[in-house]
């Protein structure tokens, strides 16, 4: 299966093959600010499964609360994040699932950084929940 993600204005895009290795909801403050929402939802693909990229994104790097570097690749025109790279998931990229616009996209299986989750947000019981995120994912 191939999927295509695009930024809001369509200047940037990427295509992936296969299913994501991981789909998660992130409640960290950086994802809240980056998305303008209460959490971000990303699908993580191995770099080898990203089969095409179009356009030239800008980058913004920040050190997260985990102490790990996070690099957002975003459209210089519309500002949409096309993908993120984190030291935590080396060799993978995280693509915001809204960029795919597929209602049947796989459901997240976990939520991370729950210690900074908005108190009224509830995730399904069957999701794995992590209070914080450290390099050893504990």
UniProtKB/TrEMBL annotation:
Keyword annotations: Lyase, Metal-binding, Zinc
InterPro entries: CENP-V/GFA, Mss4-like_sf
Start and end residues of each CENP-V/GFA domain: 3-119
SUPFAM superfamilies found in the cross-reference section: Mss4-like
GO molecular function: carbon-sulfur lyase activity; metal ion binding
Sequence similarity: Belongs to the Gfa family.
PANTHER family: CENP-V_GFA DOMAIN-CONTAINING PROTEIN-RELATED (PTHR33337:SF40), GFA DOMAIN-CONTAINING PROTEIN (PTHR33337)
Protein name from the UniProt record: Uncharacterized conserved protein
Record organism: Ferrimonas marina
Lineage: Bacteria, Pseudomonadati, Pseudomonadota, Gammaproteobacteria, Alteromonadales
């Amino acid at each position: 299966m191939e999927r295509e993600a695009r930024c809001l204005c369509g200047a940037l895009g990427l295509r992936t093959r296969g299913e994501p290795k991981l789909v998660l909801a992130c409640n960290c403050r950086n994802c809240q600010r980056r998305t303008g929402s209460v959490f971000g939802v990303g699908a993580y693909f191995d770099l080898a499964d990203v089969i095409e990229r179009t356009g030239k994104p800008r980058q913004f790097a920040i050190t997260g609360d985990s102490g790990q570097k996070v690099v957002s690749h975003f459209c210089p025109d519309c500002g949409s994040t096309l993908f993120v790279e984190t030291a935590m998931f080396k060799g993978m990229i995280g693509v915001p699932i809204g960029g795919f616009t597929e209602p049947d996209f796989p459901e997240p299986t976990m939520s991370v950084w729950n210690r900074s989750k908005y108190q009224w947000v509830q995730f399904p019981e069957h999701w794995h929940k992590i209070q914080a995120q450290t390099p050893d994912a504990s």
